[in-house]
Structures are given as structure tokens and as C-alpha cells.
Amino acid sequence: MHSIRAKALDEFSRRTGRAVPAIAKTFWGAPMHVLYPASHAAALYRYGFVEEAVTAFFLQRLRPGDTAIDVGAHFGYFSLLASALVGPAGRVVAFEPSPRTFAILSSNAKRPSNIRCVRAAVFSRAGRASFRDFGDTFSTLNSLFSPRFEANVPHPPSAETYDVETVALGTFCRTNGLAPDFVKIDAESAELPILRGMEAILRRKKPDLCVEVGDLGVPGVAESRKTIHHLLARGYRALECKDGKFVAHTLQRRYEPGNLFFVAR
Description:
Blueprint: H1 2-16, E1 20-25, E2 31-36, H2 41-47, H3 52-61, E3 67-71, H4 77-86, E4 91-95, H5 99-108, E5 115-118, E6 121-123, E7 127-133, E8 160-168, H6 169-175, E9 182-185, H7 191-196, H8 199-205, E10 208-213, H9 224-232, E11 236-242, E12 245-248, E13 258-264
Parallel strand pairs: 3-4, 3-9, 4-5, 6-8, 9-10
Antiparallel strand pairs: 1-2, 7-8, 10-13, 11-12, 11-13
């Protein structure tokens, strides 16, 4: 039935050129509002999960009572997964700066009582910054930096630009009495500034980390190797997922888009 509905949504979206509101069901049974076929939404609607390796890391590392932070929460799949895993005694904080995306995230987070949604971009410091919004279909690429479009997007959309609030994770956690056990960072080229803004957390608490990597030549963005070295120097091990297992990662010269995982040595 899902495949039939997905084909109908595909056809409607193709004909109208618009993203279509739909309700997906996660693999653990939670309903979730999405915009179809925005990135991730199609996979969520069909299969109930996205990014298998990241999902597996959540399942392996999060425990009841933990505090998890989701930086770049988008529609909230990983926030909802964390909520289910940490349970009523745990806490989840989901950051998303785009107003349209944040509205969907907030709708999805209404039912769980342990999720707090924050409309802000996590960065190295608190303040205001110019944010690029590429619309509903390409909303996962919204960024404080230039777009990370790949070769398979021959006609990328133009961006709407507006100012957003920025927060430094270290200051936010200290102010709100949070000691995160787990942090997911998917912030379209802002990963290293975000890590620099949580220095005390990295050195004292050493939460498990899921960090997006990828070298797409974005101006002003450090190579992924520099992000990885930043964490290795703070007592972390880098892992990658191979054949369903998390194994030691060997540093590369250049990184395709993906995710690496970091645990304290």
C-alpha cells in the first residue's frame, strides 16, 4: 500500500512541481509529518527510516535517561528516534533554524514530552547570521554557508536569504543545565564551528558524536580532515560503519558526503 501511495505522491509532485504534505510512519511506529518528496521524506514514507548507519549508531549508543542533542533536526526523524530511546527520564533538544522546517519539526515533536525544539542555528558563537534557505524540496541543504549541491542536481534552486539566531552549544548547555550524552551534528558545512562552540563539553563530558563530513569545495569551509583532527586531539576515536558494524576509521585525503562517528578513547 505504501508503494502505491508513494507512486501517487511522486506523480502529483512531478505534475505540480510542489512538495506535498504527507504522514509517514517510522519503523518503531511513530507517525511523522513530512513534505514529499523533500530529501529523506520519500525514504521515510516508504521504509520508515533514513540513513541506516546513523540510525544504527543511535540504536547502539543511546540509553534510557540520556540527554541527546540533534543539531540540524530538519523534520525531526532523529529527534523522535532519540526520544523513544532515552524515554521519559531522558531529554532531547532539537535545533532547526528554518521557519518552515521548524514548523514541521514542532508538529512532530508535540506528542513526546521529552523533546524541546529550538529555532536557532548552532554555531561557534551566539548572535545573528545570514542563512540560505533552498525551499521545501531541498530543505536539507539549508545552510549558513554556500550550498553543497552535488553534480546530480543540474539545476539547483536559488536561495532565500534571511537572518537567524545563532547559539553556541557550550553556552546553551551551561545556561540550561544540560550535560549531553549524545550529539548529532548535520549542519551543512558548519560542523567545525559548532564543535569549536562546545569545547568544554568535548573535554569534560565527551558525549558520543555523529558528525556529517564531505568535501564539496564550499568557500570558507574547512576540509573534513581538519574536523576529524579536531576531535582526535580531544580524546576521541573515529569510527565508520562497514557491513553493519562500527569499525576504526582510517583518515582520508578527501571525503564524499557522509557521516562519521566518534566515541571517547
